[in-house]
Amino acid sequence: MDSVNAACKLLSLGSAAVLGLYIAGQTGIGQPATPAPQSRFAGPTSSQTLALDAAGTILAVTNPDSNTVTFFDVANDRNRRIREVNVGQEPWGVAINPLGTRAYVANTISGTVSVLAVNRNSPAVARVLTEIKVGTEPFGVALTPNGTKLYVSNKSSNGVSVIDTASNRVIRTIENVGFHPRGIAITNDGDGEDDDETVYVTQFFGMPNGKPDGEDDSKVGLVSIIRTVADELETTVSLIPIGDTGFKAAGDALAKVAPPATPVAADFRFTTGAYLNQLNNIIVKGNFAYIPSVGASPNGPTRFNVNTQSLLSVMNLTTNKDTEQTINMHVAVANQTATPKLFVTVPWAIAAKNREDEAYVVSAASDHVVKVSLNRGSGAATVVSDGARVLQIATGKNPRGIVINGTDTRAYVSNYISRDVTVINVERGQDRVSATMQSDVLPTAGTIWELIHVGKELYNSSTGEFDGPTPLSPKIRGRLSDNGWGSCASCHPDGLSDNVVWLFAAGPRRTVPQHADYDPDDPSKQRVFNWSAIFDEQEDFELNIRGVSGGLGLIVGDDGTTPATPVAGFTPANANRRQLRSRGVNSWDAIKAYIQFGVRAPISPVDKNDPEAVAGERLFRQAGCQTCHGTVTWSSSRVKFAPPPGAEVLSNGQIIGELKKVGTFDPAAKNEVRATGLPPLGADGFAPPTLLSLFAFPKTFFHNGSADSLEQVMSNVTHRSAGTNGVDLLTGEAQRRQLIRFLLSIDGTSPPIE
Fold it and tell me: pTM for this one?
């Protein structure tokens, strides 16, 4: 009788629920059994910051800030934290073999892959078996569906390591896969072998296509293709820019049409395009690959809804071509009738269901996932909406990865800043959060580490969460951008650079990485900010929050909430004005602390003892390059006063003494325009950029991107002889090659040249 009652109760759940329970491993009415181990993944695989075994019972999550990986028992929704294991420095990618007996972790700073033994029946004994040396700054890891080979993207040495999982040895390193390889996806042909699968690897940055930087189609996204049969680079696919983002601008900098001071609806008549940039992740579904990216629309004017976009591109795996069906997910949110709206800012990762034609895209800056439907025949993707509102599911803070179990019942999202995992019920008709699991502890309150962490949170957020003016006041949200459209990280991923030349009000300006803003030995010493030396405080970027991202900002009036107008220029200072507080600390102070202490320089793959690099350093010194690029920050640019500066150091709104004329300004260049329509700003020179980790920002050099290679940089005679009063000591091609080798070797371990 009890079994009959249990059966009736089960049937009341509906046929879909019964099927879901059956697939998940129910052996009968009563207590569910743990699913049996499986020797092969049912579908294609991809690199993520968290991983499941094939049965969907063990979940591994990396903790980059703590150098650990955390294991969870998620079988039958137990969602039990089992153990946190120490691995190498800054782990990002993780994979678990199909049987759930081995885990593989890419340690970005260590340059290794940790291999861990995992016991399905006693996961608490998880331990590191060995460390495998791979390339420089490994990031993504993905297993072939049968688990016999592991592919590792080495983002700073531009290659892919192939590891035989039986011997735990690197059996091949595929060189020159492309600049900054990141995401990996591997097909599954279903025959149980791994000798004819295909590996797809994204290149993080869009690469030049022959057009001047600043145009909305000046670069293309790239995906490299490797066949497992030979483990060689087979081809590279270009992902085409989109001609119309769905949002119009009130001006056109390249056409020298300045926007009105106060534009009205009729002024927004200029179509904007966008190219794919920040390609962090890729998945395979059927005959197509799906790639989320931060679309760049660099042509001015700068405005929150015409510069960065949320793109999802589709690649045909039969023809190895872009299907030209890229969608801008921001459009679906803009078309909502319901308010408030929250845009899909910084789409960072994606995962698809196995049996249904649905996928979920992670919005890293807006703390949610958005659901998309996929057309099995054409590959076309559509953002799911009920007409009034896009289907968005809130996650923890700064989600960076997502996986879905083999039964299409649960999705797991790793949240970098809140250091937890969001569990989402993705069964048909559900799409709701069912649990949250803490993967790592947060920094202790009141410590410098908490201050840095709060700054990292705000830097990566499109909204922000702030304290009210009194302890009893409700939290304040949404100050960092207009409806969650834009964050510092939109253009400065991990505090670095998106490699884009934006047509700002000052002119064409390549995004400056922030890892060298401060002297690491004395953080009170800082660079003058921006190419034009127009900012001397981090708080000056409040103007970007207000003017570019459309946010209310963090500087407030006496009531603690009303936005106080930030000061454009240098008098008075923006620092030390009243700020919103977040978790009890001043918001701008926290952001500044993150930039000072939390943004690291990428590690160079070039050996400092390479004879060519050693010879290049001698040439660097002889040519006086340290005149502009000396000191520990590899830039002579410095704030040499207590803000604000006096009139004696200013000219045309610039700190004139920090500018250097080195022959890089060409007023006749097509992109040497200002979004305001004023004459180009640059005749007085530019603040020297840092050379620290120069290798990490490829094919876009000088303030306006006029050089696509360091060879082109060295062909500028005025520039290369600026340190010797015009005497050219680098006339020989071999000399320039040696100097370039030295430049590519510079990173945080390089002794500074004063």
Answer: 0.94
